[in-house]
Design a protein that fits this description.
mainly alpha; 65% helix; 144 residues; globular; 8 helices
């Protein structure tokens, strides 16, 4: 008896492997392992910030392994600004702010490719200020 609802799982699915290669290439990481460390760190951090439909929709568009990292996190009750997000990740790893900012931009570039422009815009509307630059966009200004 076979379960047609679940695709056969390799150690990592092809889509996740492609995501890691995109992050490795865009971030100029020397190894796939370094790229994966960045992906895990940043997606876990994003999972602590993102809620609601945007979280669900993003998880649905990411490779399965990436979606699991994102959704395994319980959202924080106090969302962080983009800069505080980078500082929090740096504090968790002991890495420099510059390195952590680089990691964040590299991973968010891949996330944006999977999410698409419309979903990224919705995500940025939900998050506090400072995330647009991390996604490689100009900061959105809310009308009064």
């Amino acid at each position: 008896m076979s379960d047609h609802s679940a695709p056969s799982q390799q150690p990592y699915g092809r889509a996740y492997e492609q995501m890691l290669e995109k992050v490795r290439y865009d971030g100029a990481y020397p190894t796939r392992e370094k790229a994966e460390q960045a992906v895990r760190l940043v997606l876990a951090g994003l999972g602590r910030q993102l809620t609601g439909d945007e979280r669900v929709d993003l998880a649905a568009r990411l490779p399965l392994e990436a979606a699991r990292i994102l959704t395994a996190q319980i959202p924080d009750t106090q969302p962080l600004t983009g800069w505080a997000f980078v500082k929090d990740l740096a504090a968790r790893t002991g890495a420099s702010l510059a390195t952590t900012r680089w990691d964040t931009g590299s991973v968010f570039s891949a996330v944006a490719a999977y999410a698409g422009s419309e979903l990224v815009t919705r995500i940025l509307r939900q998050l506090p200020s400072g995330y647009a630059l991390l996604f490689g966009r100009a900061e959105l200004v809310q009308a009064a």
